[in-house]
């Protein structure tokens, strides 16, 4: 049964770190499509620099022409905070009980997993792929580390045989790019070129996001 893979984020804005990671995961799972899921109202952080519609537009430009990357905008169509457990429950209902469903997160996000809404329900809904972020280690005594120890598997093949419940760590090259750094750079009048796709930067300027002057910096 084909795997369904989601990779959630605020994507404020999407950058080459996100895109490379999504592609690496897709390839390591046998070129399955990876669905980028922008959150509407992030449950865990302050206001975003761009609106949900603007972040979605940037994502559309970023993945244009890449068959292995798709967008799932279901969280944008839901009212209220975007809880991952709700998203996974919806997907599980749509995919049926037996389809392998996989959620991708970086170690930084996974480190706070036990503060997510209904986090204990999540392994019953999906597998988790944790992508190692250099410099971000899990506290060995923490719930996320325990989950990894109890449910960890060594290879992606182990995710195909069941619908949910396994945790796989992957270690693809991690580009040292953050959306925070990009917003700061733009706000400070510097170009984020080569950190985001050119089409994304052009659209950020056109919309005047993150304090960008609507000029052509290329
Ligand atoms: N450089 C990167 N490479 C790969 N994955 C990343 C990178 N930066 C963040 N991620 C992962 O992408 C997901 C969404 O991250 P998010 O949208 O918060 O990006 P971010 O760059 O960390 O943003 P911010 O700086 O605003 O916190 C998370 O699982 C996070 O671990
Ligand atoms: O469901 C939750 O309570 C929850 C709490 C924190 C983060 N998440 C999800 O984790 C993903 C990565 O978050 P972030 O902050 O790195 O963009 C994104 O899809 C968020 O919706 C989800």
SSE order and pairing:
Elements: E1 4-9, H1 16-28, E2 34-38, H2 52-63, E3 69-71, H3 84-95, E4 101-106, H4 107-110, H5 122-125, E5 127-131, H6 143-151, E6 152-153, H7 157-160, E7 167-170, H8 179-187, H9 198-207
The chain binds adenosine-5'-triphosphate (ATP) and nicotinate mononucleotide.
State the gist of this model.
This protein has helices at residues 16-28, 52-63, 84-95, 107-110, 122-125, 143-151, 157-160, 179-187, 198-207; strands at residues 4-9, 34-38, 69-71, 101-106, 127-131, 152-153, 167-170. It is an alpha/beta fold and 218 residues long.
Structure write-up:
- It is a single chain.
- The protein is of the alpha/beta class and 218 residues long.
- It has a single domain (4-211), classed as HUPs (Rossmann fold, 3-Layer(aba) Sandwich).
- Helices cover 35% and strands 14% of the residues.
- The chain contains 9 helices and 7 strands.
- It has a 7-stranded parallel β-sheet, sandwiched between helices.
- Helix 1 (16-28) links the parallel strand 1 (4-9) and strand 2 (34-38).
- Helix 2 (52-63) runs antiparallel to helix 9.
- It binds adenosine-5'-triphosphate and nicotinate mononucleotide.
- Nicotinate mononucleotide binds at residues 8-10, 37, 39, 42-45, 82-85, 105, 109, 116-117.
Q: Which structural class do the helices and strands define?
A: alpha/beta
Largest pleated sheet: 7 strands, parallel
CATH homologous superfamily assignment:
HUPs
Which ligands occur here? adenosine-5'-triphosphate, nicotinate mononucleotide
N-to-C span: 45 Å
Segments where pLDDT lies below 50 for 5+ residues? none
Strand content: 5-15%
Strand order of the largest sheet: 3-2-1-4-5-7-6
CATH topology grouping: Rossmann fold
Please report the total strand number as a whole number: 7
Q: Mean pLDDT across all residues, rounded?
A: 95
- Spell the H/E element sequence: EHEHEHEHHEHEHEHH
**Corresponding CATH architecture:** 3-Layer(aba) Sandwich
Shape: globular
Task: Please tell me how large the radius of gyration is.
Answer: 17 Å
């Amino acid at each position: 049964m084909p795997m369904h893979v989601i990779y959630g984020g605020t994507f404020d804005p999407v950058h080459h770190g996100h895109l490379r990671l999504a592609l690496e995961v897709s390839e390591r799972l046998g070129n399955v499509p990876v669905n980028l899921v922008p959150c509407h109202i992030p449950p865990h952080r302050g206001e975003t620099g761009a609106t949900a519609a603007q972040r979605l537009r940037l994502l559309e430009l970023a993945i244009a022409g890449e068959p292995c990357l798709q967008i799932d905008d279901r969280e944008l169509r839901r009212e209220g905070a975007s809880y991952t457990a709700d998203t996974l429950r919806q997907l599980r209902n749509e995919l049926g009980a037996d389809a392998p469903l996989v959620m991708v997160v970086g170690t930084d996000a996974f480190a706070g997993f036990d503060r997510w809404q209904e986090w204990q329900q999540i392994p019953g809904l999906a597998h988790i792929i944790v992508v190692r972020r250099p410099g971000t280690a899990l506290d060995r005594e923490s719930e996320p580390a325990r989950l990894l120890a109890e449910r960890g598997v060594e290879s992606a093949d182990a995710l195909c045989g069941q619908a949910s419940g396994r945790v796989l760590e992957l270690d693809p090259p991690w580009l040292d790019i953050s959306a925070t750094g990009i917003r700061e750079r733009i706000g400070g009048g510097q170009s984020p070129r080569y950190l985001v796709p050119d089409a994304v930067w052009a659209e950020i300027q056109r919309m005047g996001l993150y304090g960008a002057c609507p000029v052509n910096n290329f």
